[in-house]
UniProtKB/TrEMBL annotation:
Record organism: Paenacidovorax monticola
Sequence ranges assigned to domain Amidase in this UniProt record: 42-483
Matches recorded under InterPro entries: Amidase_dom, AS_sf, FAAH2
GO cellular component: endomembrane system
NCBIfam families, sorted: PRK06170.1 (NF004816)
E.C. designation(s): 3.5.1.4
Gene Ontology terms, MF aspect: amidase activity
Record's protein name: Amidase
Pfam families membership: Amidase (PF01425)
Enzyme kind, highest EC tier: hydrolase
Keywords, alphabetical: Hydrolase
Amino acid sequence: MTTPTASTPAATVAETLDALTFAGAREQAHALAEGRVSASALLEHVLARIALFDAELNAVPVVDAERARAAAREADAALARGERRPLLGVPVTVKESFDVAGLATSTGNPAYAGNVATADAPAVAALRAAGAVIVGKSNVPLSLADLQSYNAVHGLTRNPWDPARTPGGSSGGSAAALAAGYVALELGSDIGGSIRIPAHFTGVYGHKPTYGLVSMRGTGVPSGRHAERDLTVGGPMARTAADLELALELLLNRDPLQSKAWRATLPPARHQRLADFRVLLIDHWPGTERTRSERLVGERLLERLRTQGARVSRPQDLPPGLLPDLAAQHRTYRSLLGSSLVEPPPLSDAAQARLAALAPEDRSADAAWLRSFTLPHREWLRDNEHRLALRHQWERLFEAFDVVVTPVAPTPAFAHDHSEPKDARQFPVQYEDGVRPLGFLGLFTWAGLPVLPGLPATSFPLGLDSDGLPIGAQAVGPYLEDRTPIAFAHLLERAYGGFEAPPAFAVGRAL
């Protein structure tokens, strides 16, 4: 449905809503500020799209319609008074794991289905303070621990490009809500690609900030924890790169204790033209066979960057020791990832058997993962020292390069697979000589690359593959220089376009 403003004909409002359905948050905010549409009309349009499409998609299983309507009315009154805030009246949804006052935070676990938050998480409060209208919560996997978004509380979320495929996880509902044209901005979190892989699977943008920049208080279960989640960051997801920068600025400096004494002021992007960027392009993970999707991502990036005049290097062009040992880094990432879990899932019988059979000298990433759930503290300290040393090594590399660009995952979105145990799942992946299975843990190599050293990484779309599925890449930037990979993604967007609407959701826009 559409609701005309007092001075705007209904037909014009419908046309405006049609134009805003897949617009960015900045564009929606401008339309609201200029009076071309009301916050109430835009919200009703969002609610109508959710009602029309979400019975099948199930991206936003928690809709807080009446409180959202009240917030939209307040936004309209504020706009009429001449107030201007970055997101005033813009509808947004947030990942289910973030506390929203009055709504339950369960992370898909039935044991926490009644865990109603009494206050907004600081990141949610930041969006609300900027004028955003919180529509509801988007779906996640159980305990945020999967690349598929389904659970016993809220059910299964499907990919807008193909309902038979996953939109990813753990911010899978977030990505699906953006791609389906529900909202223009989402709040996600990332420890193993949970922002970037769903963005890659659905053709949207996502930013994993530098570790520690965005407060993670008021997230996850059990509630009330004060310790920062090791490796985990909160960050924005959007349909434009510019909206990532807008949202990131709002999310900074929200920790109530830290903000008493210090504030993060991020340096500007290193460059404003693609031709000025020094790019290290990596599209082949060491020790593995390159997939067709990885090859396509590399070829598409190389052609576009060279066309734009960027200086592109490959790993074989580097002097020895400049690029960190990615395999060794991934082993430490797996070790600290497993040991960071407050409530780790029990190992399957097969995994326990593999753990018992490990040779003491086995230093593989798979061995590190199996040992991580019972990691002695002294081993954790050694891994942490390796993490910090890697951060300094990456800093040296970023003296020679501005961004490191890689695939986000070895494959586009795959078909739903809920077989158990999870770590025994095998996913069909296309290689140059045919389709072969890839294990669950093999999906995380690229996504884990910036996580261990705490680097910022921006996931951005690169169009569709030969099967009509979205593919994307990630630009990894220097520590605390988040604006640089976002600017890089924005410049590529300006040159080649970015988000494309899934055909099934590009119809019936103004409802």
